[in-house]
Amino acid sequence: MFTISVETHFQASHQLTLPDGSKEPVHNHDWVVTASLSSEKLNNMGVVMDFHTLKAMVDKTVAGFDNTALDNISYFQQNNPSAENVAKYIYDKLRNELHEGVKLRSIRVVEEPGCSAKFRE
Question: Which helix (H) or strand (E) is 91 found in, with range?
């Protein structure tokens, strides 16, 4: 099994809703997203997928997050804008865009150094 990963960044704020219904203060993060995918075989170029193509796909998926409040995005009005839900959102958007034979393994989101969440199926 071959696995590749690309990384991208965005800046965004969020405000989590706590279990008692109160909200934590709005705060910013320099988010880091790592997308990992794999394939049993390499394509005719000898790669799982071109890194630049995958990076462009991930960048396009998170473009609407950059310099915004995640709470203003409709998905996060229904789902707390946690790192876990950010990872799931990105995973759900990317998984159907990949070529046959290539599987999205995981999306890892780093909210700040030492604090990350990963989503995979």
Answer: helix 83-95
- Cα dihedral: 39, 40, 44, 45 (round 10): 50
CATH 3.30.479.10, applies to 2-119: yes
Write out the two tokens for 30. 């320099």
pLDDT in tens, 71-116: 999 999 999 999 999 999 999 999 989 988 899 999 999 999 999 9
Q: What are the phi and psi torsion angles at 25 (to 5°)? A: -60, 145
Q: Where exactly are the structural domains of the chain? A: 2-119
- Backbone phi and psi for residue 109, each to the nearest 5 degrees, phi listed first: -120, 125
Could you report the per-residue pLDDT of 26-62, keeping only the tens digit for each?
A: 999 999 999 999 999 999 999 999 999 999 999 999 9
